[in-house]
Amino acid sequence: MESLVSESSMPATPVQGHSLVIRGGRPLSGTVDVKGAKNLATKAMVAALLGDSASVLRDVPDISDVWVVRSLLEAHGVRVDAVEDGALRLDPSGAVSAHMEEIDAHAGASRIPILFCGPLLHLLGQAFIPDLGGCRIGDRPIDFHLDALRAFGAVVEKLPTGIRLSAPGGLRGANIELPYPSVGATEQVLLTAVRAQGTTELRNAAIEPEIMDLIGVLQKMGAIISYEPNRVVFIEGVDRLSGYDHRCIFDRNEAASWACAALATDGDIFVGGAKQQEMLTFLNVYRKAGGVFDIAEDGIRFRRGPELKPVVVETDVHPGFMTDWQQPLIVALTQARGTSVVHETVYENRLGFTRALVQMGADIVVHPQGIDAPGRRVPRRKLEQAAVINGPTPLHGADVQVPDLRGGYSYVIAALAAEGESTVRNIDIIRRGYARFLDKLTALGADFDVLG
Ligand code: EPU
User: Fold this and answer.
1) What domains are defined for the chain?
2) What is the dihedral of CA 286, 329, 408, 348, to 10 degrees?
3) How far is the CA of 323 from the centre of ligand 1 (A)?
């Protein structure tokens, strides 16, 4: 197989513009291993800035979001070394303000830079954050982040190219209630409060497993953080934090993606490193949709049962069904007999990717204002949408363009499930969140060529 540039060489900026030519209609079968979660590793790397000694992060995934954070840390004088397979040593002892141009070079590449604010304010008294990128799945504002930082005493100044922050009087603990249990805003508060003066009470916090793992990282560094079951987190600020040694929690989004690939292609995939507890909600839906799974000590095996069945799913914050799970699931649901409904309630624009599936033969209608259905949680969010999927419909090859990370993954598995040849363009986005993606496809028996 031709390699998609060097998947292990970790360039600072991903190469754009590769395509996959996929010959579908073959089940994906075999074993893939999932490593550290994208949504923890990148945040734990930022946390290393808060320590007064070096940190070691293990099972770091080889993905472009990690490369971006690594470059940003290096631009701020943090020394980052690959110390052994999949581990990074992060030494913040030489941390300095980065040059505007170096930070700006990352504008548009990721949303993680916003999480540098608190640590940089503690360390340097100021921070500059470029315009943020990340997947185009709605407006993705940062108002919760900025409001929280202001509550800690930061002064926020908006510039044409980004945001400048300063903390003339230092950062003080605050009482903060998030309007929505945002993952990023919860992380922002944690990373800022641990070194702020006094106690912070955060209400309506996100409680995703990756956030719990970040709390674990911060506790290893010396932070004092407790939480109540009702989304309330207390953080007692401390004067100093040290480095940590931590192994990232596994990537449950990647595990769910491969599980859906087995369902969609009628394959049989053992996902090494997948664990049950963090995937309980996913596994319930998987079973209801006609999937079968066997849980082992070292991973979970996923395959189809006798028939695929339609399901009604609503995405939600943890412990609900994750928004990042719906895209590959929808591909599998095109093969279920009957009508499935997927309500997207986390982002306002995360069903657009289904247009390409329709091009491939799927029967999917998106209702941009959402639809009512019995048993819905109340109150509904204003921004939700719904996809109605009628199946089974044979899928056929098409020429499609990857729109975002999870949508892109779902196009690849749709093309693998489809009869005939497909071209999936702009696959480099997939490297934001799937480590050694092409190697894994090859290991599972996929038939494809890389172009570009
Ligand atoms: N929101 C605001 N204002 C804010 C922040 C968020 O209105 O200041 C809204 C968002 O627009 C969205 C909702 O709150 O409608 C949830 O956003 P959240 O902050 O929870 O998401 P995030 O932190 O930006 C992370 C993951 C996403 C994942 C979501 C939900 C990272 C780097 N990204 O995003 O991952 O979908 O949480 O679990 O951790 C992906 O992996 O493909 C991905 C997009």
Assistant:
1) 7-34+250-451 (3.65.10.10), 38-247 (3.65.10.10)
2) -120
3) 9
For residue 135, indicate whether it is catalytic.
yes
Which helix (H) or strand (E) segment is 114 a member of? none
Percent of the chain with pLDDT over 90: 80
Q: What is the distance in A from the centroid of ligand 1 to the CA of 172?
A: 25
pLDDT at 139: 58
Q: How many Cβ atoms are within 10 Å of 133's Cβ, its own excluded?
A: 17
Q: What is the mean pLDDT of residues 113-141?
A: 80
| Stretch (H or E) spanning 361 | none
Nearest to 260 by CA among 176, 357, 376, 189: 357
pTM over 0.70: yes
**From 117, 135, 248, 260, active-site residue:** 135
| Ligand 1 atom with least separation from CA of 110 | 32
Compute the distance between CA of residue 128 and CA of residue 12 in angstroms, rounded to an integer. 20
Pocket test for ligand 1, best of 72, 135, 140, 204 (most atoms within 8 A of CB): 140
Question: Nearest CA to 323 among 74, 61, 65, 135?
Answer: 135
Query: Do the strands 338-344 and 385-391 form a parallel or antiparallel pair, or are they unpaired?
Result: antiparallel
